[in-house]
Amino acid sequence: MNTRTLHDGAVLRAAQPGDEAGILACIQALADYEHEPDAVANTAEMLTASLFGADPRVFTHVVEREGRIVGIAIWFLTYSTWTGRHGIWLEDLFVGEEQRGRGYGKALIASLATECVTRGYSRLEWTVLDWNAPSIAFYRSLGATPMDEWTTQRLVGDDLETLAAHAG
Fold this sequence. Notes:
This protein has 168 residues and is of the alpha+beta class. 34% of the residues lie in helices and 23% in strands.
């Protein structure tokens, strides 16, 4: 991703070593917003390994304003068996509350759309909590459409361990 200066002097760029504390602060702020303040087990060290290790599988674009990370888009690759092409899964999009309305969220999503188009990926996808009306309205304004027939499924904790134990 190319570094881009936004209209107010903020910078949109790929995350780099040294950004971990700012990224983690955004992750925690997102968890707080989503009423899950105690859910974040991630650490700066884990982010270093995930984002900047030998074989990164997760990526982050950041908005930096006045030397501080104020927005993040954390993403990874998906694959569509139907199209035979990769896509991007947007895991987290967050812009600090005091920074909203400056176009940073749109710039972050547009940067991922650019990644898709440039790399020949077929889709950009994410989930949104059904009670998060401001985000849903924002996504609709970008042209995003809901996948009403799909329900996300998840295995975690004991259920994940139990199923894994039965695999062998």
